[in-house]
Design a protein that fits this description.
With 451 residues, the protein is mostly helical. It has one domain (18-274, 336-430). 67% of the residues lie in helices and 4% in strands. It has helices at 2-10, 19-26, 42-61, 68-75, 77-86, 91-115, 119-146, 168-187, 192-211, 215-232, 234-254, 260-267, 278-296, 307-314, 343-380, 385-401, 413-429, 443-450, and strands at 150-152, 155-158, 322-327, 330-336. A hairpin with a 2-residue loop joins strand 1 and strand 2. The chain is globular. 46% of the residues are buried.
Length: 451
């Protein structure tokens, strides 16, 4: 045991400052109370401690590691958030919304950026994403097989992991991000063994992703994986595509994963205008309501947390206002629809054009910087392509998923961690020279671990 700890210490793993970030990811696997609301969970509390830990390190060491560019890019959303919070219908609601947005889009990403030292830390977090995806995916597959999942068309088969029916998108989000991370590692310039393991992980996670019945997660994952394959190069793209097609044939044909309900869910993706289901009707109705809110409050919106308050005044009678949830250990419950399920329209309705330009401008800056760093890495033939593909993949997935989803629920903190990894690669890590040498370890600490 002491020998193992010594080896870990020599590699800098025991002393790496990103362990609080790993703790945030691990706590996403903590089962939530079936009767509770889909609000902040234990991972959110630890993310606050992580931000505090980062601040203490900066003050103690007297460093200013956040560059001017990074400060501007990550701090840009504060402008729109401050105006929207001041214009909220209730000061308490505005303050709560401001804290939540700052947590997810400013503080947590900045802390993750500052805590990552090198590509080794980046890869550690990437594998942590894959690990938590396997935990949630295993629970989800068990729910489907044993019929103990959330209710879907009257049957308790929907895989929701430990998030319960209150947050049916939680497991789908975690597993989809795990697929993106694993594929980025498989396409990168790491060792053959790591690439093979990562490819197997990506393929294995496709099963729980399918059983989540989440159309938005499917679309975002398909778009992101296609983009990653294109960015990795044509030869690798063709090889991985062949493997994915073969795995799909085995899963659907050989193992019978393609059930009637799953096929019906896939077919419903194209039924957006011709006989859409009630969930699609509700979503379009809320999108229209969010647009109308913005048209009447174009610059600053109706204020943070204002969408639920103004929803009924702008929505048409077609809106059902509630979704029915049950299963996965919880009884029947009517859950109110409190957001438009579109991040861009949510920001536009609550923060107006100023808030949307500030937030989306920050994301577009990360896109530009991340892609430029990826192109530079490929041109120079340097190591780090796996980090580039993971970072760009995470950003593409989130920006695509935001077309069908917004922030809310215990899995929301995962968004902040993702943006932190993206920010590190785009603004700090792309120019790092990778030497392959182990991280320096304090000699006294190493002797203590050995004892």
């Amino acid at each position: 045991m002491s020998l193992a700890l010594t080896l870990l210490a020599r590699r800098g793993i025991l002393l790496t400052p990103v362990l609080p970030v790993v703790a945030v990811l691990v706590l996403l696997a903590v089962p939530l109370s079936p009767s509770g609301d889909a609000g902040p969970g234990p991972a959110d509390a630890v993310s606050g401690l992580m931000v505090l830990y980062c601040a203490i390190r900066l003050v103690r060491d007297g460093r200013r590691d956040l560059s001017r560019t990074a400060a501007v890019v990550l701090g840009l959303p504060v402008v729109g958030l401050s105006l929207a919070a001041a214009g909220s219908y209730a000061p308490g609601a505005g303050a709560a919304g401001l804290v939540r947005y700052l947590q997810i889009f400013v503080l947590v990403p900045a802390a993750v950026l500052l805590l990552i030292r090198d590509r080794g830390d980046f890869r550690l977090l990437t594998w942590s994403f894959v690990g938590i995806a396997f935990v949630q995916g295993a629970v989800g597959v068990h729910q489907y097989v044993t019929r103990t999942g959330a209710s879907y068309q009257g049957e308790p088969i929907r895989a929701v992991g430990t998030f319960g029916p209150q947050d049916v998108m939680g497991m789908a989000t975690v597993v989809a991000i795990g697929v993106v991370c694993a594929l980025g590692l498989a396409l990168g310039l790491t060792s053959v063994r790591q690439r093979a393991v990562a490819a197997l992980c990506a393929l294995a996670l496709l099963l729980p992703l399918a059983l989540s019945f989440s159309r938005g997660a499917w679309i975002a994952t398909a778009v992101t994986c296609t983009a990653q394959l294109a960015l990795a190069g044509l030869r690798r793209a063709l090889k991985v595509t062949a493997v994915v097609v073969a795995a799909g044939v085995v899963l659907v044909g050989g193992l019978g994963v393609g059930t009637a309900l799953l096929q019906e869910r896939i077919d419903s993706i194209g039924q957006v205008a011709d006989a859409p289901d009630q969930s699609v009707v509700d979503r379009y109705t809320m999108w229209a309501a969010a647009t109308d809110m913005w048209l009447e409050h174009p610059l600053t919106g109706v204020g943070l947390k204002g969408f639920p308050e103004y929803r009924d005044a702008y929505a048409s009678p077609a809106l059902s206002s509630f979704s029915d949830t049950e299963g996965a250990g919880a009884g029947y419950r009517r859950q109110p629809l409190l957001s438009p399920h579109n991040m861009y329209l949510l920001v536009l309705s609550e923060q107006g054009l100023i808030g949307l330009l500030a937030l989306v401008g920050s994301w577009l800056a990360l896109v530009v910087c991340g892609l430029r760093a990826l192109v530079r890495t490929r041109r120079q033939g340097a190591h780090g392509l796996d980090c580039a593909l993971v970072a760009c993949g995470l950003l593409i997935w989130k920006l695509t998923d935001f077309l069908y989803a917004d922030i809310g629920g215990p899995a929301t903190v995962l968004t902040g961690v993702c943006f932190g990894l993206v920010a590190w690669w785009a603004l700090a890590g792309s120019g790092e020279a990778e030497t392959g040498t182990p991280a320096p370890v304090d000699a006294a600490a190493e002797r203590a671990v050995a004892r």
